[in-house]
Design goal:
single chain; mainly alpha; two-stranded antiparallel sheet; 8 helices; 5 strands; 4% strand; globular
Amino acid sequence: MREAAIMTAEWLNTNVKSTSNGWFPRRCEPSGKHYPKNAYGDSDILFQKSGDGLFIIQLYTGLTRRGLADYTEIIRQKISVFMEAGGIFGSINHDTYDEHENVAYSVAFRVLREAAKLLGDKEIRNFAYDKCLAGLEQFKMKEDRNGVQTKGLLFMEKSWDTAYLWENAEAALAYIEAYIDTNNQSYLADGLTILRAIAKHHHGQHGFLTEGVDWNNHVGKQHHFNEDEYGDIKYTEPLLNNLHIVEPTLLAINLEGAVGKAQKR
């Protein structure tokens, strides 16, 4: 897997050129050539505004931190582009087209947090907290809506405002990591609140966990359990969605155990 990561990073760095604003393209052809169209073959309004590029920085950072490659300068360069733009938070989901998506803010915080540690850069760290993590506030639902348990969840984006659980899990992970860094209890509370809200959406004897909470019939009641007007979507991606949710859940449990042991001492 390390070899694959090294080769992937090398291919990206060699073949995928920057967009006109200095960022990464949202899509490219197998050759690395820019593919400026969306999933439907039309011009992609987020071609150079998608948070997808953050994952390339995450890869470069992970390799550099482990001494498997050295992408220090390009990490610094791309984060500079990101910050000078005020953050690039366009849809990471491949089929939505909004310049502000909740999971893009979560990913941005987590990626910049790690990069700031690698580079020893307080300015990047501050941007991660003040712009990226703080940006999640705009997506929070602080009440139950239309009889659906939405309190504590984050909706995805204004143009597609369903609350998807894997994205909420990424937000929970961001908050818990922020707590690990700062010991700020409010961050831990935010993370646990999201995980508890997620846990309200299990179904059936086997604990089926919905992919999303459609509180305003955005996707259509034909996709809801019992075809209720508002409610949980009756589909999921069992492995992928649950891996996203398991990670912050286990982290929270381990933290709880560590805190409990410290209190006993």
